[in-house]
Structure formats: structure tokens, C-alpha cells
């Protein structure tokens, strides 16, 4: 059984204030959390998993940046940091022949299938935690104050490979915990009959389902893996989002960016080497969406109001062209006919998806 408590967690001298409502974690989840918040695991030290996935902003970038700066100053990732909350419910990537679309896979482009695989990548990505190789990470964990607990849980591993696998397993266990995916929003409380939505929020919910077409991708069916509504069908789409001229990745030099400002992010299609999927990115959950600005794979939209307006009028107002025009979704957004008041109502409804809501 899990309980709701107020806590402050201390890791390697760093005090991390956790969410207002937080599940009590078991030993392995606590170990994973210690690794998740450990700023000594980057090169140079100073960046942790939590830097780009901070609880207070819905497990997205701590500083709400367009893209996150890595441990090496001046190196930026090419994409906005996607929330890792509720990522434990994303299925492995597969092609659904009936729906004629790819579904699942982690990261914006679906390039890995498990949380363990996902956890391993930032450690050795030169634009993120920038360690030379996984052996460096292993040595740092061996020197960490939580290493005795690591050994207690996993035993004395025989090789550095097994230690690294255990590190990523611990991280994945924490990411699967109720602290990362708590389902404690006002929407959840409303569905359980514990509170009421305002008139504007109710209107927004109806518009979300019907006129706004939001629920076509951010579906309102219960997810089979979660047993709750995740507000995503885990599919891929090209929304017609323009290039973001403020994306700091454009200023990164070779070998990390060989095309400079001419870089085009091809998303899923780049991973699959399939031009039919160019420009498509995974539909993210809308849970905690009010906390995770900016929005879009490249952080083009600064506010919820901006991105909702774009969905509404993309095809009838003067927006810059899509980053990759050929595969843009023309059916479910672009000219929805929403009024200013209706756009505001949809935003009001989406704000009910923020975790930590407390009923009287």
C-alpha cells in the first residue's frame, strides 16, 4: 500500500524538494531516485537526470528552456526535454496495420523500447551528461554515498557491465514509481467524484472531446497498461510546427551539428530511415502539461495559449512554414473554428491535468 506524505529528499549534498503529494518509495525506488538526482554523474559534474526532468515542472526541463544545455557549457540538445512522467506506460514501438501508424517507443522519435534503454543514453550523450563511456559512470556510482545500498540490493556484481545494467534498472524502477506517475490531478479527483469542475473547465472538456478534436490523439480512453486515462494514444504526427529560430542547437558546431541553421529534424522517419515518417513525433501525454512549457519537439510555443491557437488557426493565419511540410496532418487541426473564449476554455481544462491537486 502507498501513502501520501510530505518529504524533502537529500542526495549528495543537494536538497531536492519533492512534489506536494508523494508516494512512499521502496528501497529500490529510493536508490533509483538517488541516482536520478545525483549531479556527480555527469562530466563535468553538475548535471543530473533531474536537471532535464524536474518534478516541480512536471518532470521536464528544470529551467523551462527551449532545449536543455548539457553538462558541457554551450552544448545543447536538439529537442525540447520531454516529460518522463507516465513514460512507464509507453509501449514498445510497433506498426499498427489497422490504424496505419506507428505506436509507442520512447523519446520523441521512438528509438528505444524500454526505460532501461532510455536511462542509459543521456549518461554518454555528449550533448547531455557527456561521460566518455559507461565505465566512467560506473566508477562514479562506486564512489557515491548510496553505493552500499546499491550493493545491498543488487549484490556484488561480477563486471562493470552488470553494474551499469543495474544502474539503469534502478533508474527505471524509480521512473515506474507512483512518485513519477501519481495520477493526482484535479481531473482524477473529478472522475472519482471528489470535486467539481468549474463552468469553464467543463466547457473546455466538451470542446476537447468534440469541436477541438484534441481527443483524436490525446484520447480519453483508459490506457490498458495504466488503467487510467493518459491523454495520448502514443502515435506519431507531424503538426506542422515551424523551425524554431531560437533553438540553441542551431549554434552548435560540428561534429554535433553538421548543418547549422539548415538542420531539419526528421523525427521518427530519421530513426526508421523511412521518408513517409519524416517530420513525425510521438504524441506526448497531456498530464502536467501546464508545467512543461515550452511546447513542441523544438520548443517553438512558449505557452499553452500559443499552441492551442496554432492548432486552431494554423492554416488560416500567417505562420511560418512547417519544418517538414510533406507529411503535415491536414485533417485534425489547422482550421477548427474555435473562438477566443473556446480556446481559453480548452486551456482551462488542460490545467486540471496537473498533479498534486488536494481535495478538501
UniProtKB/TrEMBL annotation:
* Main location per the UniProt record: other
Alphabetically ordered keywords of this record = Heme, Iron, Metal-binding, Oxidoreductase, Peroxidase, Signal
Record bears the keyword Plastid: no
Q: Which species is this UniProt entry from?
A: Parabacteroides chinchillae
Which is an annotated GO molecular function term of this record? cytochrome-c peroxidase activity
Q: What is this protein called?
A: Cytochrome c peroxidase
Where on this chain does heme c 1 bind? 49, 52-53
Q: Where in the cell is it found?
A: Cell envelope
Which residues are listed for heme c 2 binding in this entry?
214, 217-218
Q: What region holds the Di-haem cytochrome c peroxidase domain? A: 27-194
GO cellular component terms attached to this protein's record: cell envelope
Secretion signal, residue range per the UniProt entry: none
